[in-house]
């Protein structure tokens, strides 16, 4: 039964998320933690850490790891297929009709309207994860320093992860 619930949950997430994996995180968190209670917030954050370090799209990696955690290999397969299925259907449909609507101002307006929503979803995911991940003053200071180095000093994200893991191993 969990496999079917996983499939339906990730099908909804895939169908109603725009902007990629990070924009999906608030929906994934709500479904996995709030609606179904399959994971705790700590487990979710731990899986996100693995997802972000693993090569590949965040949405697919999230579905794969979370599906496995909830229902094993079958859950992993179901969640992964479900999260990409709406995109595949939409892309095939758009490709079919693209030549007819590509210059339509309505299409341009729709995507212009979606952009701020995507930014809002990504910001929401960042704030939600930060609230759950910042557990004390040390983690807050580490987050602020690494945010500054990544955002303003253009430190490579992989190096940021390595630094965070190394510092975290010593101070926690």
Automatic annotation (TrEMBL):
Location of the protein in the cell: Cell membrane
Pfam families in the record: Chromate_transp
UniProt keyword terms in alphabetical order: Cell membrane, Membrane, Transmembrane, Transmembrane helix
Transmembrane segments: 6-25, 70-94, 106-126, 155-171
Membrane association type: Multi-pass membrane protein
InterPro entries per the UniProt record, alphabetical: CHR_Transporter, Chromate_transpt
Main localization category: membrane
Cell membrane recorded as keyword: yes
Domain of life: Bacteria
Family named by the database record: Belongs to the chromate ion transporter (CHR) (TC 2.A.51) family.
Protein's name according to its UniProt entry: Chromate transporter
